[in-house]
Amino acid sequence: MNKSNQDTQRAIDIVKQSLPRRYRSERLFRLYGIAAIVASIAFLSLLFISIFANGYGAFWQTHIQLEVHFDPKILEQDSLATADYQGLVKQILRNMFPDAQGRSAKRKLYGLVSGGAAFQLRDAALNDPKIVGETLSIWVPADDDVDMLLKGHIKRDVPESERRLTDQQFKWLDELEAQGKLIKRFNKTFFSVGDSREPELAGIWGAVMGSFFTLVVTLLLSFPIGVAAAVYLEEFAPKNRWTDLIEININNLAAVPSIVFGLLGLAVFLNFFNLPRSAPVVGGLVLTLMTLPTIIIASRSALQSVPPSIREAALGVGASKMQMVAHHVLPLALPGMLTGTIIGMARALGETAPLLMIGMVAFIVDIPGGFTDPSTALPVQVYLWADSPERAFVERTSAAIMVLLAFLITMNAAAIFFRKKFERRW
User: Fold this and answer.
1) How far apart are CA 52 and CA 405, in angstroms?
2) Under 8 Å CB-to-CB from 299, ≥6 apart: which residues?
3) How far, in Å, are 49, 186, 299, 320, 327 from residue 323 at the CA level?
4) Is the pTM of this model over 0.70?
5) Which of 164, 332, 366, 424 gives 20 to 30 Å between its CA and that of 354?
């Protein structure tokens, strides 16, 4: 065997000796990867389970059935809007439980029913004045402490001094439950009203509408401006130090913390231009500034993915550069641009910090009806409820997070769908 063959055999032996070690390293690396994925899924599952466990109860609300006699002496036809409905509710409760004697006992009795019961009776009388003088069975929301009791968050086996409901209140509630006048029903209020100081009357519809108006402004401004900027930089702008500087700044802006855009909106839109505070139009302007870098970067990537042969073929048959971009390149890149826009809008939907800086943290009860009406947004509503001390707001907070996650998952799923449906392989 000559020297060359000996060297070859020696190299083969060295490789064979190192193969087990390489295989072990490869298996170990694979195990590390699998372990990382399993850990990520476990933590994500734990997060979702925790949110669902805390929030699903908010979709149900405890109600108490009252036999309401719309007494004409209390409800005069010419003053239905200003009648003493709260006194009517108290009178009904006293009739149901005549053993409640004394100011303290009556106050505890009145505390079983939500303060929104009076407004519910008022709305019923205003919607149908003919019910004055009649007696109707009406389900009204129970107080949040009663709701927490039926959902198991208040324990009966602890000393009376350590819980928010007394033994006497437990007795009244047991009587109502035995009579079938205390049940849990689907909480439509949570999806149909705005915020409230009372947990059982609080809803997310005002925040949802505020987020909707804010995202409409963001989309109408960020998409055309972002696409136009991407087309100019990619197809028309000369390659020099100025365009390089612009590209670097766009990439840097995509990594700027969102609260910085909130400070910019506070200084420019509110203090300089005197736009209305806590309005969706201002929130949309701030989120536009935050979303533009993401849309520009995604749009430029979509334009770069179009093969040069498309451009050369269009120019070869006599199309101008503008015609080439508008009729050939842009339609092919549009699916990628839409995907980037949807992802940018999903990020804008979940932002809280910039909206806090422009005043959308205000307590807003009314449902916004336009772009300049005072409003809040869904992530800001989560922030407000998370800061509330009542146990019932913990449920509302987690339920609002579930709704927000549903919107975000839907938007990201739409982005994946459009990318798969319209994506072209070259």
Assistant:
1) 11
2) 226, 227, 229, 230, 231, 333, 336, 337, 340
3) 53, 57, 18, 5, 6
4) yes
5) 366
